[in-house]
Protein: QueT transporter family protein
Amino acid sequence: MKTKNIVTNAIVAALYVAVTGILAPISFGALQFRVAEIFNHLVVFNRKYIIGIVGGVFISNLFFSTMVGYDLVFGVGHSLLSLLIASGLIRKVPNIWGKMAINTAVFTIVSALIAWELNLAFGVPFWFGYLTVGIGEIGVMAIGAPVMKYLDSKIHFSERIEG
Structure:
């Protein structure tokens, strides 16, 4: 792995942790709106961002979660699984908006893992947890798509990770 990729992923992880930490009260629990999930759209620009995103989720859950053990398994698992599925599904999709829509759908569907976690940890009814977490996920990802598209026009995400 090139030094540039390592540094870029470290920056992504740090940004994910900073946003999650600042907004920790709304980033965890059955009613969550984890704004840092906007960074999940980086996989649309290059799958090499998976490392930074998952690293950010791991560190955020380690330091800010009230249910660390569960979040390190389910939260990190949710992100890794979603990113891998989405990056595979979008590989041949030419349209950036199509890629972001697929990515949003995958993250929302795989949020079932978080609903399961909330059920195990707090007894939150699975379908209620799935609904509330899913609404937060789709909200952040849908609002985040045009933000990330705009930022890409200025920052050029793919160039940042490639040598």
User: Anything to note?
Assistant: Residues 126-155 form the longest helix (30 residues). The CA atoms of residues 90 and 98 lie 8 Å apart.
